[in-house]
Amino acid sequence: MGRQSGCVKPKLRKGLWSPEEDEKLFNHITRFGIGCWSTVPKLAGLQRCGKSCRLRWINYLRPDLKRGMFSQQEEDLIISLHEARGNRWAQIAAQLPGRTDNEIKNFWNSCLKKKLMKKGIDPNTHKPVIDKEARERENSSMAVAASSAAMSSTIFYEGGLNLTEGSREQFENKPVFDPLLVYEFQGNADPIGYNSSFSAQYLRPYSQSYQEVNSHLGFNSMPNLTSFDHQNVAETDFSGNSTSQMSSLLFSEAKESSSNSSIMNNMMENAAFSWGTDKFESVFQCQNGIKYEEMKPSPWPEGQLQNHNSEYFSSYPLTSLSEDLARAPMDVFQ
DNA sequence: AACTGCCCCAACCGCATTGGG
DNA sequence: GCCCAATGCGGTTGGGGCAGT
Fold first, then answer.
1. Quick check: is A104 in a domain?
2. Under 8 Å CB-to-CB from A225, ≥6 apart: which residues?
3. CA A5 to C1' B20, whole Å
4. Taking the model in full, what pTM does it have?
5. Is A95 part of a structural domain of the chain?
6. Coil, helix or strand for A121?
7. How many CB atoms are closer than 10 A to CB A257?
8. Does residue A127 reach within 7 angstroms of strand C, measured from its CB?
9. What pLDDT is attached to residue A264?
10. Same domain, A138 and A209
11. Which nucleotides of C are covered by protein (CB under 7 A)?
12. CA at A236, C1' at C12: how many angstroms apart?
């Protein structure tokens, strides 16, 4: 077997995270930023492994996460990206701001696969199932032919005779079914036709994000993961910037900011989080009380993207690879 | 009400990759 | 080049919720 998981040490907690643990982790990250995950549990006073902390932050605590159901546009984008890239969930997630690879993976496995199958599309090949069935029919008829030919040959050989020309041809010339060859990887530069997928509005505005986090991470009870802003997402205007432009802009700025962790540190300085509705805002403020987005000119048209917090959180060195991949043209993956 | 089966999804596990010494 | 720890990623699991009986 491979290397032991980072979570095998005795006395480490596993399973669902308690509100107290979330609070500790969130406080720690907002105060000190993301450094070495392996040291986070100790410094934050958690009985968890660093790996578990990292996952919790990425998949749940990050303030830039977009919760709630997937919009139709997101669905379509996921399907198209999956067709082009397969189960590269991290790469797919890089094209969907605010969504995690885990979330997309779960959504794919629980919903999209079934939807595609209902439509008669093979979720693995993204081709109509009818083709597959036809191939299977052909394959089975080939198998019958092959076995009958084999039987014939046995009989012939037992009788000391050669195969007849016809039966030999049938036996030898039938294509051998190879599922690996049947699978055709169907990428192209813009396989989706989604070059007009996202607008900057796709990201939640600051105020909404703030309210949601406040109301859902109050930690009197565990946060509600399913009742976030589906409506907002569904009503999003997708007619704006192209996906690639959007991603490029987002992630180039992300990289900029991630290369300068002092930005995050500034933002987070003195931002201890009490999990009360009145204190959470401190996370998004500098020590002088000015919201971060007020300090940095926005590259976006006014009102389109107010939530710099999200960007800076997401830019926070989480997945540099994803960032690079997000900037790369689609055909890199083919 | 109690039981069962199914579905969803948060979290874990194992492996690959990366980077520092 | 090798070793090892940290990190990232994709597959899998298991528990909670819910519908059906």
1. no
2. A60, A67
3. 21
4. 0.55
5. no
6. strand
7. 22
8. no
9. 42
10. no
11. 5-12, 15
12. 34
Residues 6+ apart with CB under 8 A from A10: none
The stretch A235-249 carries a mean pLDDT of 36
Q: Which nucleotide is nearest to A40 (CA to C1')?
A: C6
Does any strand C atom come closer than 7 Å to the Cβ of A106? Answer: yes
Within this chain, do residues A310 and A288 fall inside the same structural domain, yes or no? yes
**Unique residue bearing structure tokens 């309210």:** A211
Q: What percentage of chain A carries pLDDT values higher than 70?
A: 36
If one counts the domains in chain A, the total is 3
Task: List residue ranges whose Cβ is under 7 angstroms from nucleic strand B.
Answer: A 1-5, 7-8, 13-17, 48, 51-52, 55-56, 59-60, 102-103, 105-107, 109-111, 114, 225-226
For the segment 42-81 of chain A, residues whose CB is within 7 A of strand C: 50-51, 54
Q: What is the pLDDT of residues A32-78, one digit of tens each?
A: 888 889 899 989 999 999 999 999 999 999 888 887 889 999 999 99
Phi/psi at A320 (nearest 5 deg)? -60, -35
Please state the rounded mean pLDDT for residues A85-89.
91
Q: Evaluate whether residue A66 is within a structural domain.
A: no
- Backbone torsions φ then ψ of A44, nearest 5 degrees: -90, -5
> Do A290 and A202 lie in a common domain?
yes
* Shared domain check, A260 and A175: no
Q: Check whether residue A204 and residue A245 sit in a common domain.
A: yes
Integer-rounded Cα Rg, in Å, for chain A is 26
Residue A134 pLDDT level (bands cut at 50, 70, 90): low
Instruction: Give domain status of residue A111, yes or no.
Output: no
> How many angstroms is C1' of B5 away from CA of A141?
38
Residue A320's domain comprises: 195-333
Nucleotide nearest to A109 (CA to C1'): B8
Residue A188 CA to chain centroid, in angstroms? 20
> Are A201 and A173 within one domain?
no
In this complex, the nucleotide whose C1' atom is nearest to the CA atom of residue A34 is C7
Closest nt by CA–C1' to A4: B14
Q: Straight-line distance from CA A333 to C1' B4, in Å? A: 45
Q: Whole-angstrom distance between the N-terminal and C-terminal Cα of chain A? A: 31
Please tell me which of A40-49, A144-153, A161-170 the model is most confident about, judged by mean pLDDT.
A40-49
Nearest nucleic acid nucleotide to A322, CA to C1' distance: C8
Specify whether A211 is located in the same domain as A309: yes
In whole angstroms, give the CA distance from residue A322 to residue A315. Answer: 11
